[in-house]
Amino acid sequence: MDNTVELKRRIINAGRKAVEQLIKVAEEDIIKHDPEDDLAADRLKNAAATKKLAIFDALEILSRMQSEEELMDNSNENKKHTGGFAERRANK
């Protein structure tokens, strides 16, 4: 079980790195101020769609990371309350 918790922590850390990269994509300018770079409408549309996808993916990753961290915290909290049925019921 400890191995699973460690793997989840590694996945969450990787998720944080992925979110940082997605933020970089979302923060990039769509239109660069280069007079010789004539962007077609379809390229602008694709760039905007890429940014939207990056933002939504980042939010989804963050939400899932938060859910997993809460599950792990609750699991750790439950481990602290060991004992029999009567002891568990008495704590409530």
Verbal overview:
The protein is mostly helical. It has three helices and no strands. The longest helix is centred in the middle third of the chain and has 40 residues, at 41-80. The radius of gyration is 22 Å and the shape is rod-shaped. The two termini are 26 Å apart.
Describe the structure concisely.
The chain has 92 residues and is mostly helical. The chain has helices at residues 2-27, 41-80, 85-90.
Number of DSSP helices?
3
Structural class: mainly alpha
Poorly predicted runs? none
The helix/strand series, from N terminus to C terminus, equals: HHH
Roughly how many Å is the radius of gyration?
22 Å
Shape call: rod-shaped
Helical content band: over 70%
Total number of domains? 1
Strand content: under 5%
Quick check: average pLDDT? 83
Question: How would a crystallographer describe the biggest sheet?
Answer: none
How many strands? 0
Question: What's the end-to-end separation, in Å?
Answer: 26 Å
